[in-house]
Amino acid sequence: MITKINFYKKISENVYNLRQKLGLSIEEFNKKSGVDLNKATIWCIENNKQNISLYQIFLISKNLNI
User: Fold this and answer.
1) Is the CB of residue 11 less than 8 Å from the CB of residue 42?
2) Quick one: three-class SS letters along 14-27?
3) What is the pTM of this model?
4) Which of 16, 18, 24, 61 is the most exposed place for a label (fewest CB within 10 A)?
């Protein structure tokens, strides 16, 4: 069963892995994805310290063609 904690943990792993796969710095990822967040916020999302919104997931998917 997927819990809220597991759900956000998987999302944070996917965001980090995507950024690494594309070879982007946090700043480059922020610019290309269109999420318009500061470096610390993206780091917190990638490290499961802060949740990402559904709209931000949409922007990442749309702007990075995934």
Assistant:
1) no
2) HHHHHHHHHCCCHH
3) 0.89
4) 61
What is the phi/psi pair of residue 11, to 5°? -60, -45
Report the alpha-carbon angle 15-18-19, nearest 5.
85
Q: What's the rounded Cα separation, in Å, for the pair 36 and 17?
A: 19
CB distance 29 to 38 below 8 Å: no
Q: Which residue from 49, 53, 48 is spatially nearest to 12, judged by alpha carbons?
A: 48
Structure tokens at 54: 């559904």
pLDDT digit string (tens) for 4-57?
999 999 999 999 999 999 999 999 999 999 999 999 999 999 999 999 999 999
Q: What is the DSSP letter of 52?
A: P
